[in-house]
Amino acid sequence: MEAEPDAVPRRLDRASLLRATRELCRRDADLARVVGAYGPPPLWARAPGFSSLVQIILGQHVSTTSARAVFRRLQAAVGKVTGKRLASLSSAELRDLGLTRQKAESCLALARRVEAGEVDLGRIARLDDTRARSLLVENRGVGEWTAAIYLLMALRRPDVWPRGDLALAQAARRVKRLRSVPTTDRLDRLATSWRPWRSVGARILWHHYLCERRG
């Protein structure tokens, strides 16, 4: 039986993550096997705000290790990563730190909009998923995947699906014993059965992906 709507929190914490994991395991035997083998997924979380959104932009289309290395260089250059400090740099200076031209320009545009008061991430955090996502994607370099990851990781929303995530597709092929990596549309349909806990379904698949890679 699915959780009643009023039982779904606005923001996941460790207790609600475990409750949702148990719920999904009752519904989905494949997810139950993952949790049986590797335990519940961690509560991967980032602090809401500009710095986390920049980290997610840096993580587009690259490994987590590579993105972290670039972000550490950015921190070494400016200290705490704020809109004001990042906006003081040029695109060339950001590229010297390892950002691609596209990511440098996206991060600068975001920093300038934050400084100008055109983007209020505190306000966005108070909005529902649909409205928050729509405001995030108005920013250059912030597509649907980036917005979804921000909602899922920084705002800890319980029912967000990061459409097009390659690691999720690869994990789903293994977990669901599919003959090939599922298309984005097929994976979307699969995730629909996990409502209102699609974020938790994604965490379980990521957990499987990382545990398998570690061997």
Strand content: under 5%
Q: What Rg do the Cα atoms give?
A: 18 Å
Structural class: mainly alpha
Q: Got a strand count? A: 0
Task: Name the average pLDDT.
Answer: 94
The N- to C-terminal Cα distance equals: 34 Å
User: How many helix segments?
Assistant: 13
Helix percent band: 55-70%
Backbone shape: globular
Largest sheet: number of strands, sense, barrel closure: none
Low-confidence stretches: 1-6
The helix/strand order is HHHHHHHHHHHHH
Can you give me a brief rundown of this structure?
With 215 residues, this protein is an all-alpha fold.
Topology:
Layout: H1 14-27, H2 29-38, H3 50-58, H4 64-78, H5 83-87, H6 91-96, H7 101-115, H8 121-125, H9 129-136, H10 144-154, H11 166-175, H12 184-192, H13 198-214
Helix pairs in contact: 1-2, 2-13, 3-4, 3-7, 3-10, 9-10, 11-13
Question: What features would you describe in this structure?
Answer:
- The protein is mainly alpha-helical.
- It has helices spanning 14-27, 29-38, 50-58, 64-78, 83-87, 91-96, 101-115, 121-125, 129-136, 144-154, 166-175, 184-192, 198-214.
- It contains 13 helices and no strands.
- Helix 3 packs across helix 4, helix 3 packs antiparallel against helix 7 and helix 11 crosses helix 13.
- The chain starts with 13 loop residues before the first helix and ends with a helix.
- Residues 1-6 have low confidence and may be disordered.
